[in-house]
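The protein record quoted in full:

***
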Amino acid sequence: MSGIVVIGAGQAGASLVAKLRAEGYAGPLTLLGEEAYPPYQRPPLSKKYLLGEMPRERLFLRPEAFYAEQGIDLRLGCRPEAIDRAARLVRIDGQALTYDQLVLATGARPRRLPQAIGGDLAGVFTLRGMADVDALAPHMRPGARLLVVGGGYIGLEAAAVARGLCLNVTLIEAAPRILQRVAAPETAEYFRKLHQAHGVDLCEGTGLERLLGEGAVTGADLSDGRRIDVDLVLAGIGVLPEVALAEAAGLRCDNGIAVDGQGRSSDPHIWAAGDCASFPWRGGRIRLESVGNAVDMGERVARNLMGAEETYQPEPWFWSDQYDIKLQIAGLNHGYEQVVARPGVRAGSLSHWYYAGGRLIALDAMNDPRAYMIGRRLLARGQSPDPAALARPETDLKALAEA
């Protein structure tokens, strides 16, 4: 009995197996997870879970009993060693698990600071899985000196949580500004002021030369010539798609496991979904790192395994929580030429609308859920309101969406 085997028990893998059963797949179904825990939510890890406001069990996407009830063979704490495409089997701990169809939902791994500059010292952390948070949490004590390396969303969220726990936080970003790759200068300015107002020592255009300490980190030399004392370091410098198994098996990879519009890899019996997969999108190829993409792509691949032959064309969306600000993002701002700022109805709310060639392509909404929802609707319909009208606070957003 071979059936379908899914490698990776994150959001994409969990969504995929649940959807397969919901769609009526009755064959053998195996879900392999490297961690010791059943599939769980990742976004609360760096927020409520790190703050101690959410118990571990509430992170789980479904009760562990669900998998047994659905006839899903959930195997935890196992790391596949190799894929034999000719024999259609996965090697695990010296044993072989055969498959009719294989799905890689292996996710992504955090970039780590190089060992040559002290990245292997005790007290240096990354933030990706539950074990990372469990290791970091005991060090998040009031008065501790935290250095956050990286001014992307992970680094900024970690800085916000640390300030909420009364740590002294220095955040450095080697690029000229925070959020350099993902947001307009206007959005970066909004969050720069927010973090500075909460006491973060935010240093842009500043890199890390080396970490100091014998066995454990005690300080850092920065590229601006400063030497600072630190008690712990968090590297928030991005992630890399987990493609080692795929590459070793000879699958085509291109910023992730390259799949077609339905989620099928260069091997017709192997599929991929979630953070690890790159797929065709609007004439190019992209890879999305988000819960929305993991769920939607996982479910779409499940349907295609059942013969639906549906093309995956997502409408990207993301979010970030920092202090009392919820940032909601719709679309992708790649190649934008114009940013339109629009104040929200509530005090402190604001949205930034991205245009390229006169076409609306994305927006950032800060504590402005109404702008976000209307913006998503406009993007889904391919509608582009006049930028000048959009910038006027008296213009009714709902009327724009209904035009």
